Amino acid sequence: MQMLFFLCGMLTVAFVVCITMYLVIKGIPAVLTIGPAEFLLGIHWQPVDNEPEFGILPFILTSIYGTAGAVLCGVPIGLITAVFLAKSAPPRLALIIRSAVQLLAGIPSVVYGLTGMIVLVPWIRNIFSLPSGATLLAAIVVLTIMILPSIISVAESSLKAVPKEYEEGSLALGATELESYWRVTVPAAKQGILTAIVLGVGRAVGEAMAILMVAGNVANLPNLFSPVRFLTTALAAEMSYAAVGSLHREALFSIGLVLFLFIVMLNVLLRLSAVIEED
Hints:
The chain is mostly helical. It has helices at about 1-35, 35-40, 55-90, 90-105, 110-130, 135-160, 165-170, 175-190, 190-205, 210-215, 230-240, 245-279, and strands spanning about 45, 55.
């Protein structure tokens, strides 16, 4: 059984290595052909023009802003909900909320996108008097809702795993229950909470279908009230008609490589921050 577990673990590592090698092999040639500076810092994406341009800076900035906005909105909501469920919610109410969270986790991305397109996009258009409600703001709202189940479930489990003695000692020293929750239990569960944030960030960065339906899918520099295109939506929207063997298709693989490196960097930074805090 020990060998079986070892082989399963190595198989997982092999999958990651194979995906990395494939993206590097398929993505590097286009970057070298276009030029790294022009590809990463160019602001025009016009792959089918007579003089094609392959600048993905708008996609990169949009993905960063969209992910950051979703995390800034979703993490506080998710963490507060997790603390409430783990520590102070009445059992029946906690059961209802957990069921709702599980339902959110099971809803397909296309349903989020369809709901956002029918409800959220017209609402934003009317409230802010915009030509189109398919904007970065709509994408951030949808992503915030989509990352909540991951954050709430993992954070709640981490909070429940903290020994009761920590809170009892805090209460014995004169702290209130609320102070004990936020100054003792939450810091003690920071590793699990960090894992929840990593899962939420991964979901936000990798989402494509729902964002494609609510963000407008236009290669603009990011603005909260304008249509935008993410790295993921660029791949989803154009891979179907990019000719096999063309520079356009190779550039899309390069976008996939950039997206992969983006996710790796986020995970490394979050892990490093956790290690620094422990030291």
